[in-house]
Design goal:
186 residues; Four Helix Bundle (Hemerythrin (Met), subunit A); two-stranded antiparallel sheet; 6 helices; DinB/YfiT-like; MST-like
């Protein structure tokens, strides 16, 4: 008898994948998009979908389950953290006063990730709202070399940094999900 869930995947075509190609919303048939901006936006979209996929089908307790002590990391905490990141990225490109933190103090995104359906619903709503707001703020700047905000960050740099952040946290989500119910896959 063990507390560790047995490893499994939903995929039947490629057992190292999360889902079969026909069921994978990240699957695109044909060549990738033309142009650097479209390519960056496509990669970002796919990482966003990956994070959501790693969280789907779990209840609030499973989403809020912490990894290993003393870490406060959980899938729910990652959703909240991404919302906080998206808001912060808007601060990078703004000349105005910074927007306040969504979850108060430092680490409030992870510390406040508790097993409550209202917290889960709010986390998804916060993430979607902040993603849309950052996307809208950047949509006005199609020149990837344009420098924005007090720090003069290039649009390209911000997009690449966003992709890097999602990619890193999708790696965390892989391990967190496997610990919750044993599900594995890319």
């Amino acid at each position: 008898m063990t507390d560790q869930p047995e490893r499994w995947t939903q995929a039947t075509v490629h057992p190292d994948m999360w889902a079969d190609p026909a069921d994978d919303p990240r699957n695109n048939d044909g060549p990738g998009p033309d142009g650097e901006l479209a390519a960056l936006e496509g990669v970002l979209r796919d990482y966003r979908l990956t994070l959501r996929m790693k969280c789907e089908g779990l209840d609030p307790e499973q989403l809020a389950r912490r990894s290993v002590p003393p870490s406060t990391m959980s899938l729910l905490g990652l959703l909240r953290h991404i919302a906080e990141d998206e808001r912060d990225w808007r601060n990078w490109i703004s000349d105005g006063e910074p927007l306040p933190k969504l979850y108060g103090r430092r680490d409030g995104d992870f510390d406040g990730a508790v097993a409550d359906q209202a917290v889960v619903d709010a986390a998804y709503a916060d993430m979607e709202r902040e993603q849309a707001a950052t996307d809208a703020a950047l949509a006005a700047h199609e020149d990837l070399g344009e420098r924005l905000g007090r720090e003069g960050i290039a649009v390209r740099e911000l997009l690449v940094h966003r992709i890097e952040e999602y990619a890193r946290h999708c790696g965390h989500a892989d391990l967190l999900r496997e610990c919750v119910d044993g599900r594995v896959g890319q």
